[in-house]
Each structure stands twice: as structure tokens, then as C-alpha cells.
Design brief:
Blueprint: H1 13-17, H2 22-39, H3 45-52, H4 56-66, H5 75-84
Helix pairs in contact: 2-3, 3-4
């Protein structure tokens, strides 16, 4: 897999405020981004897990922790299913 390295500059004191070292912060930031992109339907669960650098099971646990449903079903889809089901 080809990778790209990104550089983000942050104030040094942010890590103590969040009680995380830089490596922990990066892991949590990747996970939070993947959860959000999954939540808004931009990526699948498996792609989100890959972005976050975790297994699919770990990603499902992260969804629970962040309060995000693992089901990507929209109200309009449910209405169509009920009406035509």
C-alpha cells in the first residue's frame, strides 16, 4: 500500500490539555476523522477502519464510544422500504 506522510503543526500545550502524548493524539485524530467520515456516509466501515489503522471490530467499538450508529440507513430509505416492502 502506498502511503503519504502529512505534517500538522499544533501548539505544544495541546497534548497536556488532552492528556495525550503526540502519538496517542495522532491515533485518536485518525480514529475521530474516520468515525465522522463514516457517520456522514463518505466511507464504508472497512475503509474507515483502514483510515483509522484499526481492525473492523475495533472500529465498531470506536463507533459505540463516539455514539455513532454502525448502521448507515437513512430515513428516506426506510420509508421506501416500508411503502414498497
Amino acid at each position: 500500500m502506498k502511503t503519504v506522510e502529512l505534517r500538522i503543526e499544533l501548539p505544544q500545550d495541546i497534548f497536556s490539555s488532552l492528556r495525550q502524548d503526540p502519538d496517542e493524539f495522532v491515533r485518536e485524530m485518525r480514529l475521530a476523522a474516520a468515525v465522522k467520515w463514516y457517520e456522514v456516509g463518505q466511507v464504508s466501515q472497512s475503509k474507515a477502519a483502514e483510515i483509522a489503522g484499526v481492525s473492523r471490530a475495533e472500529f465498531l467499538e470506536a463507533l459505540r464510544r463516539f455514539g455513532v450508529t454502525p448502521f448507515q440507513v437513512h430515513a428516506a430509505e426506510l420509508i421506501r422500504e416500508v411503502e414498497h416492502g
